[in-house]
Amino acid sequence: MKLRDCFAELYPHSHEVVVVCALGMAANEWWEVTQCENTFYMHGAMGFASSFALGIALTMPDREVWIFDGDGSLCMNLGTLLTASAQAPGNLKHFLVDNRCYQTVGAVPMVDREKSDYGRIAEGAGIRRVFEVETISALAAALPEIRQDGHTFVALRVEEESGPILAPPQPYEGPEMKYRFARAMERRFGVTVFNAEGY
Amino acid sequence: MDPHAENQSAEPADDILAALRRCGVSLAASLPDDWVTPLLRRLDREPGIRHVPVAREAEAVAVASGAFFTGARPLAIMGATGLFTCLGELATLNLRHQIPLLILASERGSRDDHRIYQEVQGRRLKEVLASLDFPHFRIATAADVAELPDAYTWCRIQKRPVVGFLTRKLLKGATT
User: Fold this and answer.
1) Chain A within 8 Å of B30 (Cβ-Cβ)?
2) What is the extent of the structural domain holding B111?
3) Which of A59, A191, A199 sits opposite B159 (nearest CB)?
4) Hey, are the CB atoms on B89 and A182 less than 8 Å from each other?
5) DSSP B104
6) Cα–Cα nearest to A70, from A34, A33, A31, A29
7) Would you call B59 and A199 a contact, using CB atoms and an 8 Å cutoff?
């Protein structure tokens, strides 16, 4: 299963969803597939996009929040599973890009290439709704259940790709990312991020 | 004599929570050290503020930063040692994306902190913050606590991390 195909399957269902992408393959491929400007593409803080998404989910509990996390990112912040599990945000769906390598730096193998099981790690953190998906048809079939209320972890078992950087990142950088995303949140959901003077 | 001492309540955590209410804070992400623990326990009893305990301080940075985008009024609370551990995330998330974040941190390693394992934090942390262009200020008296709403607004204008250091005397009194 290719990540790009996963995203093509998921994107049509995301129009009422807040989407956050971890840096690297998740961000680059989601942008490549969707060109979506409503998404937050994190540029740094590797490992902490899931915590960022948790902050959104907790303060906007009536909206579904999807985080597309990398397995390299997750391994830099496994504690995110404990923290999110304790908060139990029913609107947070944690999708993991599980390819066991650091794709954007040349598909360098991760330390856990053979032995670890992310689904069981999530279960061990106390997350009860855990899905492991290996085909697009299985993803399509599981999606209605994934989107039911309840904190959910989904491991997307995707293929390692051959190139180091498969898609260009979105063509705007840090501050512009902030303002595009925040204005999209205001426009889409009626929240007020900035005051009358714009800060 | 501290001219503001007579205005300070017996429980500094109560004063700080009252100031955070005036800031409009709606979410506080935290990881304790022994100085800020009473404040966090008090926070757990505060109905208007969602308290999010985390497993690592950088999570608190990211949780609060995400909450900013929903119109929430977030804050992070941690020890100075924990602040040292998340400088990279503060630089590559908050500085890079210009996301404001007010952090309340214990002023460990101060002259009245006689824990040897806090010495380096006291000696170097403020200089490191200055090198990253992160403003910081001390919260030592009731008057300083009362000015937290100004600090919160100033942080929003600054669009970067701003650290308020809670002193030992404020949090723990004059005892050593």
Assistant:
1) no
2) 5-172
3) A199
4) no
5) E
6) A29
7) no
Per-residue DSSP letter, A110:
P
Extended strands (E) in A99-190: 101-102, 108-109, 129-133, 152-157
Structure confidence at residue B5 as a pLDDT band (50, 70, 90): very low
The total number of structural domains in chain B stands at 1
The answer on pLDDT for A28 being more than 60 is yes
- Whether B156 has its CB under 8 Å from any CB of chain A: the answer is yes
B69 → closest Cβ in A43, A51, A185:
A185
> Residue B8's pLDDT band (boundaries 50, 70, 90)?
low
Q: How distant is the Cα of A52 from the closest Cα of chain B, in angstroms?
A: 4
Q: Identify the CATH homologous superfamily for domain A3-189.
A: Thiamin diphosphate (ThDP)-binding fold, Pyr/PP domains (3.40.50.970)
Looking at residue B1, its pLDDT comes to 38
| Residue of B25, B49, B93 for testing the chain A interface, max A β-carbons within 10 Å | B93
pLDDT of residue B24: 98
pLDDT band per the 50, 70, 90 thresholds, residue B2: very low
Q: How far is A149 from A51, CA to CA, in rounded Å?
A: 19
Q: Report the CATH number that the domain containing residue B81 is assigned in CATH.
A: 3.40.50.970
Distance of CA B62 to the CA centre of its chain: 15
Using a CB–CB cutoff of 8 Å, tell me whether B52 touches chain A: yes
Tell me: the pLDDT tens digits for A80-136? 999 999 999 999 999 999 998 999 888 889 988 878 999 999 999 999 999 999 999
- Which of B108, B42, B59, B50 is closest to B79 using CA atoms? B108
Q: Which of A51, A172, A187 should one mutate to test binding to chain B, selecting the residue with the greatest count of B CBs within 10 A?
A: A51
